Amino acid sequence: MRVTVVVPTYNERENLPVAVERLTALPVPDLHVLVVDDNSPDGTGEVADKLAAELPNVVSVLHRTEKDGLGRAYIAGITKALDDGADVVIQMDADLSHPAEVIPAMLEQLSSADVGVVLGSRYVPGGSTAEEWKWYRKALSAWANFYVNLILRLGVKDATAGFKAWQADTLRAIDVASIRSNGYSFQVEMNYRAIKKGYTIAEVPIRFEERTVGASKMSLKVQLESALMPWKLLFGRSV
User: Fold this and answer.
1) How high is the pLDDT of residue 42?
2) How would you classify the pairing of strands 115-121 and 164-167?
3) Residue 62 CB neighbour total at 10 angstroms
4) pLDDT at 184 over 80
5) DSSP line for the chain
6) CA distances from 20 to 5, 93, 141, 172 (A)
7) Cβ(160)–Cβ(144) below 8 Å
8) How far apart are CA 26 and CA 223, in angstroms?
9) Tens digits of per-residue pLDDT, 218-237?
10) What are phi and psi of 129, to 5 degrees?
11) 180 pLDDT band (50/70/90 cuts)?
12) 64 CB-near residues (< 8 Å, 6+ apart)
C-alpha cells in the first residue's frame, strides 16, 4: 500500500526538515512525502529540493508559482499523489501542529470496510489543543465546529480538522479536483462531499500543537469564506 503524505508549505524552511524527519521515522512501509511549495520567499522550496535529493525514493517536491491558498495547494498535491499511484493520501500541515506519530493509528482505522477518511481530531475523547492557545482561540475553534455541524449535520466532532487520511477511491469519488473552496472551508467541503457519497468519517484523537516557528496563514478572507461555505453547500453547491 503506497501512502503519500501531502505537505503544503509557504515559508516553512525551519519546520519542514523536522516534519520530514518525523514522517520518515514512522513504521509505515512505502510511505512517501510530497512537499507542495508555493514559491516561498524564505527558500523553503530549496530546502525541500535538498531533502528530495537526500531521500530520492521518499521525498518529492511540487513547485507552484503562486500562493493562492491552502485548498489549492492541497488539491494540486492530492491530484499528483493520485496520479502517481497513491492508495492512501494524508493531509498534513508543515508547521508541526499535527502529530506524525498518530498516522499508524489513522491508517489502522482507515482499513475498516466503510471508512473513507480518518480525521485527526481535537474534540474526541483523548484529543486536545495546545495549552498555549488563548481562551478566545479555543472558543472560536469550538464555535466553528458547532456552527458547521449545526448547518450541515456532518456528525463529526472536528469538522474543520486539517489532519486527514483518505482512501484514494474516496478522493476520486468526491472529485477532489473540482473543489473550488479554499482555506479551512476546503476541509469542510471535502467532508461534506464524502458524507454525501455515503462514506463514513472516523476520528482518532490528537493533541494539536501550537507552531513554534513562523507565522499563521489565517486571514480575514479565509475566515469569511469559511463562514459562508456551509450555507453554499446546504443550498445547492454541487457535490
Assistant:
1) 96
2) antiparallel
3) 19
4) no
5) --EEEEEEESS-TTHHHHHHHHHHTSS-TTEEEEEEE---TTSHHHHHHHHHHHSTTTEEEEE-SS---HHHHHHHHHHHHHHTT-SEEEE--TTS-S-GGGHHHHHHHHTSTTEEEEEEESSSTT-EE-TTS-HHHHHHHHHHHHHHHHHH----S-TT---EEEEHHHHHHTTGGG----HHHHHHHHHHHHHHTT-EEEEEE-EEPPPSSS-----HHHHHHHHHHHHHHHTT---
6) 10, 11, 27, 26
7) yes
8) 34
9) 555 555 665 677 767 777 65
10) -110, 165
11) confident
12) 36, 37, 38, 39, 73, 76
Query: Which cell is 155 given?
Result: 456528525
**DSSP string for residues in 148-209:** HHHHH----S-TT---EEEEHHHHHHTTGGG----HHHHHHHHHHHHHHTT-EEEEEE-EEP
Q: Which residue has the higher pLDDT, 230 or 129?
A: 129
**Please, what is the average pLDDT of the chain?**
88
Give residue 239's pLDDT band: very low, low, confident or very high (50, 70, 90). very low
pTM confidence score: 0.88
pLDDT the model gives residue 37 = 97
**108 to 40, 113, 173: CA distances (angstroms):** 34, 11, 21
Amino acid at the residue 67: K
Asked if the model's pLDDT at residue 190 lies above 50, the reply is yes
